[in-house]
Amino acid sequence: MVFESEKTMFEVYHETTYRTQYRVVYYTELQDHNKESEINRAMAGEHFVDGFIRDGRKEEAKERIDTLLARMNEGEAMTPEQFLAELGTNLA
Predict the structure, then answer these.
(1) What is residue 17's predicted lDDT score, i.e. its pLDDT?
(2) What is the value of pTM for the model shown?
(3) What is the enclosing helix (H) or strand (E) of 47?
(4) pLDDT digits (tens, 9 = 90+) for 10-50
(5) Residues 6+ apart with CB under 8 A from 64
(6) Packing angle between helix 58-73 and helix 80-87, nearest 10 degrees?
(7) What range does the domain containing 48 cover?
(8) CA separation for the pair 49, 47 (Å, rounded)
(9) Whether residue 63 has pLDDT greater than 90
(10) What's the total number of domains in the chain?
(11) How far is Cα 89 from Cα 92, in angstroms, rounded to an integer?
């Protein structure tokens, strides 16, 4: 069983500005100085997928997410279900 304090909440969204990049925000890691701006940026974008990653495998999961975002930003089509499947055991 994974406790709330042992996982990190994330959201992947698609920017709707001129760059139109896929980005990720790790909500449970936001600090007071960047919380409002990061949340506003994510809310202005188009939601793609969200979930929780296990803190015990957080660095591995973040690397995997970065790799998936790079692939998507290079034009690879991916569904939210495929994205989550690629994360596999890193999900909480």
Answers:
(1) 81
(2) 0.87
(3) strand 46-54
(4) 999 999 887 789 999 999 888 888 899 888 889 999 999 99
(5) 86, 87, 90
(6) 140
(7) 4-90
(8) 6
(9) yes
(10) 1
(11) 8
Contact 54, 37 (CB under 8 A): no
Please check the confidence at residue 51 and state whether its pLDDT lies above 70. Answer: yes
What is the CB neighbour count within 10 angstroms for residue 36? 10
Please name the residues in contact with 92: beta carbons below 8 A apart, sequence gap of 6 or more: 2, 6, 7, 51, 52, 53, 54
- Per-residue model confidence (pLDDT) at position 76: 96
Distance CA 30, CA 11 (A): 12
Q: What is the pLDDT of residue 81?
A: 97
**Cα-based distances in Å from 20 to 11, 13, 15, 46:** 16, 10, 5, 10
Beta strands 22-26 and 46-54, pairing class: unpaired
Q: Which two tokens mark 59? A: 């660095």
Tell me, what DSSP letter sits at residue 30? Answer: -
